[in-house]
Structures are given as structure tokens and as C-alpha cells.
């Protein structure tokens, strides 16, 4: 009831109705079975306040132990210090529990204060205090309280000395530890297996291998059977000093004595074997660990094993490490798969790498939260490149999108995807990847764009190719002249002359000087379709950049195709810019205008010709004057006649001067 319901008056009444009478055993068991310390404390206080039960030593001690276990230290302190008010005597076990609680919370001063409040002390409370203060490295304080204990006439026990030895080695006080050990022997307290384990571990802290070995032999000589901690401590010392062969001997001796290695044993030995390049032995030890189903506390050893096996070239052994993790129900991470995939790719065993990748994608291992080992670029880039080179870009993209969700923004992988989709004829997918790169500020490769554009062109989608070309330019890349030509030709053949014109404009602005034959075709098509202003703008741009389009050809074609208005605008543009064209072209344009009945247009352009070029021997000028008069434009006819006469006189004077 207490576990499933909130503490309310209704719950209290329910408990009261079920249990009319409470005794010490019942209250103790309810407290012991409580899963929530808050509920336990409420129950503890309620039964006393309601007059149902008066707490005794056992129930009070149990409550203090529960509160200290969950670091509810203030509540435990209040209960302990209030005992005199309830006429209950203080019990040393209660103080020991609270001292230990403060020690685990790292509050040494409070532990000392509680200890000092205890009047009748035994070695039990001193042992608790020693453990607290030595855990925090306060060895001088421990020595003072040790002397105080002796002054009070309290004899230290073997457990006391074991704690003191442990603490002094922890504080790296070898000499002090040895004095305590000598003091222990002088009191005829014989060391036990814990004492020897502590001494051996302490000696290894100071790299005193020979002394540790002597103690190990001495322990066995006194018929004190080494336990798993003894062997593991020896093994750990040998590994720390690089004596891997001795560590293996200890491991075999341990098994020979019928002692089963534990998680610490394997976690100590396996990294040492890796460091000692004993990979065959490491594989055997790993197999034994899996067979015994021993789960190490530090999962980092699997990554080290896998990396070292790969480094030694034994990829099958590295794969066994991954299998061992699965058998031991240890969560595999992307980093573990990454090590194997990377080395499979280096060894050109891509089929195995792809099988691992399939599991990685299917189980979404990359997306698992709280991952310690992420997949490195050296693992996923070769895999993505392989998939894209072998027509599996969709799988590569699925894989990389999972990586993107983990914050990966690798330009090499992005560009490989663009290239892969482009080669496989999926330019839309490639363009989407390029857009993602643009949004995330990832640099895009010029070659990737080239393949993307060519893919669109192969599919007969020049407009999309032009969009990709624009994106390429926005990224700061300058396309090759052949790429410009491919796009312009495709657009031109598709009838998208104006779009081709815009590509041409971009090409000229970027200083590309090739493809002028195609430029001429585009300009001609613009003029023929009536996009004269756009064509004149492109011609002006070409002239500014040092290109000279064949204006004579354009004017001639326009006249032949009877595009007289376009020819008129182009010739007017030529005269305004003082471009030089053949005199015969002037005559051709004028003839075309006159033939089309555009006499005023012909009059206007002839006047400009006379102003800019002087006399003209256009054979149809008299016919134009007649047409003007006939149409009632007598004023224009008169003006034109005078201009022609004046230009002829001027021409005659020039000839006479030249003859003189």
C-alpha cells in the first residue's frame, strides 16, 4: 500500500484498519521493505505520533541506516540527537551509521562532530571514523585519533590496522603504513588475507614489485589462501610495470587454484595484453570471459581490444570482440562498428563492411543516445565513397542522414553523395544534398557540381542544369568553358534562348573567352525572336569585355528574314556606339526598310547615317524622297534632299583638296 499510494490521511486510516496493533518486528520489517525513504520516514513518525508504537533501538537504527543510505543526513541527525528527549539511550551503531553516511557524502567535519558527541566509544566507532578521514586523504588527523584511541585504552583490531594501512597507501605514505604494520605485528595481531592484499596493492603503488612478490609468497607460506582480490592485485601490479608474461602466469595460477577470475581481473588483464602486443592471448582471454559470462565494469576495454586486433591485422579477432559484446548484452555503439568498417575498407573487404553497415542502419545504432564512441570520418567516408561508386547512393544517403542527426557535416561525404546520385541518374537527389550543404555552410566541390550538371543534361533537363550551374557560381566556383557550352547548347536546342542568353552573360562576366560561335548563334536567335533589347545588352557586354560580334552578319540576316524593326534598332545601336560596319550593310538595311514601306524609319536612319558617316551613294535615296512626298511627308523629303546635297558638296570639296 505504501509503495503504490501517496502518504495521505486515507492511507493512514487504511493501515490502521488492517493493523490494529504494531510491534517492533512489524515496524522494522515495514521500514526494511520500504522502497522510498520519504515514505519510510513518514511511516516512522506517524506510528509514534499516533501513539501506535514507541520506537526502540532496532527501529530507530533501521531508520537512521535508511536515511544515511539515501543521504538524508539532516533527518538522520535529528532523529539521533532527539533520542535523549524520548528517554532512549544512544547506541554506538547509530553513530557509526551516521558517521559512515557523512563520510560517503564527503562531509568529513560533520562526521568528526558526530563522533565527538559519542561519549562511550569502542573500536567500532574509531574504525568508522578512520575510514571517513582517510578516504579524504587526511592521514595526519587519522594518526592523531589513533593516538587518542590508544590513550583511551581502546585496543586496535586487525580490521583497524587494515583500514589504516589502506588509508596510508591511498595517501602515498609508505613509511607511515609500514610503521602501522610493524605496530600491528608487535601487538601479536597476525595479518589476514585482507592485510596482505592491502600491502601488496600498496607496494605496487610505489612500483616495489619485489617486495610485493615476497609478501605474496609469505602469505602462501603462512597457509593464508590467496583470494580473487589477491591474484587480481598481483596481476594488476605486473600489468602496471609492463611484465605481461608474469601477469599471464598469475592468471593461470589463479585458475589452477580453482579461483574464478572476476570482472576486475579481466578488465585489468585484457588492456595489458593489448599494450604488450599479445593479441593471440588477448583473444583467448576474451573468449574465456565470454564463456564465463563475466561482464566487465569498464566497457572501454572492448574498443581497445578491437583497435589493437585491427592494428595487428587480425580482422576476424576484431569481429569476435563485437560478437562478444553482443553475447554479454553490452550495448554496441557506432564507434565500435566504425573501427571494423574502417579496417575492412582498408583491407578491401567491402562486402563485410557493408554487412556491418546494414546492421548499423537497420538498428539505428548511430542514433542511440548517450553514445561514448562516435563514428570517425576515416570510417564513414570510405564506406560512403564505395557505395556511391557502386550504384548504392540511396543506401549511402540513408546512412549519412543518420550521421547528420548526430551533427556530422562532412564535406567529403556530402560531395561523394552528390557524385554518386549524379552518376546514377538521380540529379534531383544530388541537388537536394547540395541545397542542404548550402544551408549548413558546408563547402561544395566543383567536380561534384560538374557531375550534377552533366546528369541533368543527360536526362534532357537543361533548365535544372542551369539551376545547378547557378548554384555552382554562388558557391564561388568558375565552371570550365566546356561546361558552359554544354548548358548553353542544351538550352538553345530546347528553345530556351533567353535562358541560354543568361548563361552566356554569366560566362562572359567570368572572363571565359571560348564558345564565341555559340554566342553568335544565341545573339542571332534573340534578334530573330524580337528580344532586341536583351540582344543589344549582350552585344554591349561583349564589346566591353573585348569581344567583337559579327554585326554585319546579324544585320544582313535580319534584312534577309525581313526583320526590319530589329535591323533598324540594331543599326541605330551601331551608329550610337560608333561601331564600324560595312557601307553595303547600311544600304541593305535601307533597302529592306523601303521595301517594307517603312519610309519614315528609313528617313530617320538615313539622316543619322548622313550625320555620322557623311555622303552616301545609296542608289535608292531618290526613291525614298519620292515615297516621302507621295505619302505627304514633304517636310522630311525636303530636309533629306538638302542633307544629301550638302553631303555631296562636302564630299566634292574633300576630293578637290585631295587632288590639289
Describe this structure in words.
By secondary structure, the protein is mostly helical. The protein contains 37 helices and no strands. It has helices at residues 9-18, 24-33, 37-49, 57-69, 73-81, 92-104, 108-117, 123-135, 139-151, 158-170, 174-186, 193-205, 209-221, 228-240, 244-256, 263-275, 279-292, 300-311, 315-327, 334-346, 350-362, 377-389, 393-405, 411-423, 427-440, 446-458, 462-474, 481-493, 497-509, 516-528, 532-544, 551-560, 564-577, 583-595, 599-613, 621-630, 634-659. 36% of the residues are buried. Helix 35 (599-613) packs parallel to helix 37 (634-659). It is 73% helix and 0% strand.
Descriptors for this entry?
660 residues
In brief:
With 660 residues, the chain is mainly alpha-helical.
Uncertain residue segments: none
Strand content: under 5%
By DSSP (H or I, 4+ residues per run), the number of helices equals: 37
Query: What does the radius of gyration come to?
Result: 48 Å
Distance between the termini: 134 Å
Structural class: mainly alpha
Biggest β-sheet description? none
Question: Count the strands?
Answer: 0
Mean pLDDT: 90
Helix content: over 70%
Indicate the overall shape.
elongated
SSE layout and pairings?
Blueprint: H1 9-18, H2 24-33, H3 37-49, H4 57-69, H5 73-81, H6 92-104, H7 108-117, H8 123-135, H9 139-151, H10 158-170, H11 174-186, H12 193-205, H13 209-221, H14 228-240, H15 244-256, H16 263-275, H17 279-292, H18 300-311, H19 315-327, H20 334-346, H21 350-362, H22 377-389, H23 393-405, H24 411-423, H25 427-440, H26 446-458, H27 462-474, H28 481-493, H29 497-509, H30 516-528, H31 532-544, H32 551-560, H33 564-577, H34 583-595, H35 599-613, H36 621-630, H37 634-659
Helix pairs in contact: 2-4, 3-4, 4-5, 4-6, 5-6, 6-7, 6-8, 7-8, 8-9, 8-10, 10-11, 10-12, 12-13, 12-14, 13-14, 14-15, 14-16, 15-16, 16-17, 16-18, 17-19, 18-19, 18-20, 19-20, 20-21, 20-22, 22-23, 22-24, 23-24, 24-25, 24-26, 25-26, 26-27, 26-28, 27-28, 28-29, 29-30, 29-31, 30-31, 32-33, ...
Amino acid at each position: 500500500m505504501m509503495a503504490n499510494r501517496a502518504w495521505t490521511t486515507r492511507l493512514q486510516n487504511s493501515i490502521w484498519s488492517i493493523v490494529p496493533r504494531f510491534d517492533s518486528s512489524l515496524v522494522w520489517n515495514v521500514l526494511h521493505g520500504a522502497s522510498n525513504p520519504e515514505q519510510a520516514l513518514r511511516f516512522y513518525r506517524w506510528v509514534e505520533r499516533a501513539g501506535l508504537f514507541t520506537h526502540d533501538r532496532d527501529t530507530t537504527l533501521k531508520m537512521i541506516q535508511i536515511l544515511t543510505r539515501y543521504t538524508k543526513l539532516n533527518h538522520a541527525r535529528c532523529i539521533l540527537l532527539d533520542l535523549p528527549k524520548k528517554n532512549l539511550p544512544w547506541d554506538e551503531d547509530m553513530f557509526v551509521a551516521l558517521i559512515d553516511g557523512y563520510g560517503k557524502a564527503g562531509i568529513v567535519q560533520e562526521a568528526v562532530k558526530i563522533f565527538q558527541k559519542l561519549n562511550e566509544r569502542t573500536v567500532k566507532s574509531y574504525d568508522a571514523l578512520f575510514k571517513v578521514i582517510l578516504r579524504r586523504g587526511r592521514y595526519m588527523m587519522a594518526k592523531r585519533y589513533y593516538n587518542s584511541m590508544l590513550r583511551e585504552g581502546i585496543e586496535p583490531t586487525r580490521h583497524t590496522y587494515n583500514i589504516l594501512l589502506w588509508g596510508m597507501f591511498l595517501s602515498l605514505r609508505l613509511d607511515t603504513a609500514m610503521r602501522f604494520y610493524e605496530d600491528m605485528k608487535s601487538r601479536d595481531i597476525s595479518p589476514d588475507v585482507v592485510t596482505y592484499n592491502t600491502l601488496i596493492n600498496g607496494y605496487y603503488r610505489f612500483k616495489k614489485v619485489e617486495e610485493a612478490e615476497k609478501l605474496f609468497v609469505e602469505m602462501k607460506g603462512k597457509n593464508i589462501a590467496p583470494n580473487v582480490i589477491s591474484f587480481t592485485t598481483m596481476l594488476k601490479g605486473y600489468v602496471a610495470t609492463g611484465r605481461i608474461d608474469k601477469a599471464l602466469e598469475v592468471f593461470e595460477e589463479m585458475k589452477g587454484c580453482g579461483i574464478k577470475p572476476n570482472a576486475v581481473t579481466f578488465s585489468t588483464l585484457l588492456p595489458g595484453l593489448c599494450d604488450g602486443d599479445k593479441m593471440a592471448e588477448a583473444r583467448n582471454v576474451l573468449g574465456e570471459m565470454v564463456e564465463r559470462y563475466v561482464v566487465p565494469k569498464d566497457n572501454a576495454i572492448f574498443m581497445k581490444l578491437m583497435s589493437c586486433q585491427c592494428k595487428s591485422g587480425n580482422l576476424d579477432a576484431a569481429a569476435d570482440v563485437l560478437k562478444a559484446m553482443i553475447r554479454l548484452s553490452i550495448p554496441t555503439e557506432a564507434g565500435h562498428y566504425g573501427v571494423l568498417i574502417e579496417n575492412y575498407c582498408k583491407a578491401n573487404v567491402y562486402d563485410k563492411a557493408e554487412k556491418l553497415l546494414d546492421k548499423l542502419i537497420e538498428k539505428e545504432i548511430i542514433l542511440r543516445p548517450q553514445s561514448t564512441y562516435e563514428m570517425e570520418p576515416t570510417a564513414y567516408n570510405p564506406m560512403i565513397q564505395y557505395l556511391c561508386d557502386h550504384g548504392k547512393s540511396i543506401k549511402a544517403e540513408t546512412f549519412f542522414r543518420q550521421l547528420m542527426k548526430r551533427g556530422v557535416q562532412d564535406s567529403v561525404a556530402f560531395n561523394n553523395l552528390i557524385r554518386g546520385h549524379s552518376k546514377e541518374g538521380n540529379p534531383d537527389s544530388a541537388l537536394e544534398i547540395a541545397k542542404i550543404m548550402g544551408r549548413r555552410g558546408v563547402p561544395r566541390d566543383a567536380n561534384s557540381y560538374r557531375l550534377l550538371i552533366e546528369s541533368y543534361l543527360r536526362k534532357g533537363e537543361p533548365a535544372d542544369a542551369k539551376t545547378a550551374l547557378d548554384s555552382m557560381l554562388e558557391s564561388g566556383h568558375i565552371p570550365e568553358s566546356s561546361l558552359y557550352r554544354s548548358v548553353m547548347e542544351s538550352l538553345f536546342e530546347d528553345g530556351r534562348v533567353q535562358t541560354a542568353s543568361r548563361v552566356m552573360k554569366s560566362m562572359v562576366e567570368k572572363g571565359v573567352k571560348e564558345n564565341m560561335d555559340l554566342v553568335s548563334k544565341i545573339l542571332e536567335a534573340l534578334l530573330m525572336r524580337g528580344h532586341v533589347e536583351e540582344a543589344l545588352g549582350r552585344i554591349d557586354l561583349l564589346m566591353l569585355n573585348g569581344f567583337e560580334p559579327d554585326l554585319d552578319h546579324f544585320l544582313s540576316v535580319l534584312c534577309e528574314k525581313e526583320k526590319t524593326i530589329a535591323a533598324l534598332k540594331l543599326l541605330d545601336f551601331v551608329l550610337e556606339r560608333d561601331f564600324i560596319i560595312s557601307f553595303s550593310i547600311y544600304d541593305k538595311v535601307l533597302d529592306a526598310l523601303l521595301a517594307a514601306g517603312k519610309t519614315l524609319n528609313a528617313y530617320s536612319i538615313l539622316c543619322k547615317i548622313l550625320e555620322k558617316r557623311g555622303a552616301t551613294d545609296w542608289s535608292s535615296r531618290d526613291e525614298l524622297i519620292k515615297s516621302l512626298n507621295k505619302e505627304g511627308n514633304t517636310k522630311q523629303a525636303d530636309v533629306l534632299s538638302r542633307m544629301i546635297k550638302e553631303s555631296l558638296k562636302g564630299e566634292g570639296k574633300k576630293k578637290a583638296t585631295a587632288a590639289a
